[in-house]
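This entry is set out below.
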Amino acid sequence: MIIPAIDLIDGQVVRLYQGDYNQKTEYSLDPVDVVHSYADQGAQWLHIVDLTGAKDTSRRQLELIRRMVDTKRMAFQAGGGIRSEKEVEQLLESGVSRVVVGSLAVKSPQTVKQWVTRYGAEHIVLALDINIDETGNKFIATHGWQENSGVSLEAILGDFAEVGAKHVLCTDISRDGTLQGPNVDLYREVASTFPDVSWQASGGIGGLHDIEALKPTQVGGVILGRALLEGKFTVEEAIACWQNA
């Protein structure tokens, strides 16, 4: 499945380069208009990253997210620095179908496992952003990619398998925002090792050929951000490519 992504800072559509707030590109787009545009082209899901809320949870953009959800044009998954159960509840109450949880899954796995159990595996996405070292170890980065947790991807997935975690958005940080192609080998490996997980591939997609390359890996979804905003291809073209690959 093709899943367009939209990153929001103070109501503006933006993109960060490799998670760096100082390397920000702003786009003159209304987020609600983007929802309609992507839905018109056939998108069934939208991935929302609340970068304002990630920095300051008291400023989470719930009203804007609610306006996007209220279009009822598609289903939504949203996150950005989720730190408390209250935030999970707020997003679910706003109509978001899945809440995306990142660093906390590494720092407080017991807490997040309780959320998976309480709200259902269908409603929680684990966002696991990884750095791969020279020997191939896949370590989770936290705090907006500023810190290496020392926890391996395999270890955290083994832990969350206990509660039946189903959705995992995995980003190879070195590829994010670069348009230089996804880490196909990574997704082939993790989808094979953890076949019960629906993987969402994120980072590096710059052309339709990159989408084609991911099809054999058996990932469940492909997150598209910068490539769409910069007109490398359309959502409609991406969906057609995924269906025909």
Q: What stands out?
A: The chain has a mean pLDDT of 94. The first strand starts at residue 2 and ends at 9. The two ends are 12 Å apart (CA to CA).
